[in-house]
Write a structure and sequence with these properties.
Elements: E1 40-42, H1 48-61, E2 64-68, H2 74-89, H3 92-96, E3 107-111, E4 125-130, H4 134-137, H5 148-173, H6 180-185, E5 189-197, E6 209-212, E7 218-223, E8 230-234, E9 237-240, E10 248-252, H7 254-259, E11 269-271, E12 279-287, E13 293-294, H8 298-301, E14 312-313, H9 314-322
Parallel strand pairs: 1-2
Antiparallel strand pairs: 2-10, 3-4, 4-5, 5-12, 6-11, 7-10, 7-12, 8-9, 8-11, 13-14
Helix pairs in contact: 1-5, 2-5
The protein binds N-oxalylglycine and nickel (II) ion (NI).
């Protein structure tokens, strides 16, 4: 096998050449800002219109926000993180049974991003699972650790409810019916990426994930509380997203940028690595049903503003996304109307 997992249990002493970025593409960690904070929104706040204003502001200017009092049980998030850690601690021979670099597989353990397409690799291993409907996908999930299927199933359900709640808030904040986005996205698929970024000998020369936007509709990320690494691009400056206790990081994906007719932004973000500690993050992705037409709402194209993007479906978009490198131009640019 050409491409191997990084999480072998033995720390790497040097960064291999095929992980080393040319000087012009390195993360420049000393220039990352942490003086500004990504908005934190309390979902249990009493003033609903204030929540909507916060959502609108965050989605317009950051494409990201964190949520607190989100309704997902603390015990469950802790169990989810624990079982994910245990998974990556399994012997490498055991993990290699699930290894694949074919992005069309519905369950696979892989490394970097798109190992067959890219020239420089990324300092990440990841387990990627299709999750919904549960009864279709749970049978193919790992049965080691033994509690994996049960814990992940419970986690998926609670996160899905949170995602729907946030889509309602996003709809309302755009002046649409509460159910607008949920209806437009139809019976949403749900995927999960369990990202494991091992400690890295040269964090200045490589990435866990280079700058990218998420191709799906909405992403719900559970970050490691003790090891930071997520950064977002705001006004040309990379900004560190400080982990908050008991919070999820939410971001707008490409599909919601299209469905908001470009008002809400699917923002560039990246994961950097560090020399001391491995970092774990768990990303849940809500995705449009294959049959859903991604098309700007009438309400947002009335009053003289025309549709920024042509109509498309998610399968069409996803094919384009995976045929590219992660760090090229925004994939949505390829779907712009020519006017
Ligand atoms: C992703 C992602 C960020 C992180 O999986 O798409 O952006 O902090 N992850 O792991
Ligand atoms: Ni992402």
């Amino acid at each position: 096998m050409d491409h191997k997992l990084l999480s072998t249990g033995i720390p790497h002493k040097t960064l291999p050449d095929n992980y080393t970025r040319p000087e012009s593409q390195r993360p420049n960690l000393s220039q990352v800002s942490d003086c500004e904070d990504v908005p934190v929104i309390n979902l249990a706040a009493e003033d609903h219109s204030q929540i909507l204003q916060q959502v609108s502001h965050a989605c317009t200017h950051y494409g990201f926000f964190q949520v607190k009092n989100h309704g997902v049980s603390k015990k469950l998030t802790e169990e989810m993180q624990k079982v994910a850690q245990e998974f990556f601690k399994l012997p490498v021979e055991e993990k290699m049974k699930l290894y694949s670099d074919d992005p069309t597989k519905t369950l696979r353990l892989s490394t970097s991003f798109n190992v067959k397409k890219e020239e420089v690799h990324n300092w990440r291993d990841y387990l990627r699972l299709h999750c919904w409907p549960l009864e279709k996908y749970v049978p193919e999930w790992p049965s080691n650790p033994p509690s994996f299927k049960e814990i992940v199933s419970m986690y998926i359900k609670e996160v899905r409810e949170l995602g729907f709640r946030i889509q309602e808030l996003i709809s309302e904040s755009l002046g649409l019916e509460k159910d607008y986005l949920k209806n437009a996205l139809r019976d949403q698929a749900q995927h999960m990426a369990v990202n494991y970024y091992p400690e890295c000998p040269e964090p200045e020369m490589t990435y866990g994930l280079p700058g990218h936007t998420d191709p799906n509709a909405l992403t719900i990320l559970l970050q490691d509380l003790h090891v930071s690494g997520l950064q977002i691009l705001k006004d040309g400056i990379w900004l560190a997203v400080k982990p908050q206790p008991d919070a999820f990081v939410i971001n707008i994906g490409d599909q919601l940028q299209a469905l908001s007719n470009g008002l809400y932004k699917s923002v560039w973000h990246r994961a950097v690595v560090n020399a001391d500690k491995p970092r774990l993050s768990i990303a849940s992705f809500l995705c449009p049903a294959d049959s859903a037409l991604i098309s700007a709402p009438r309400r947002l194209t009335a009053e003289g503003s025309s549709a920024v993007y042509r109509d498309f479906t998610y399968p069409e978009y996803y094919k384009t996304f995976w045929s590219r490198n992660l760090d090229q131009e925004h994939c949505l640019e390829l779907f712009k109307n020519q006017n």
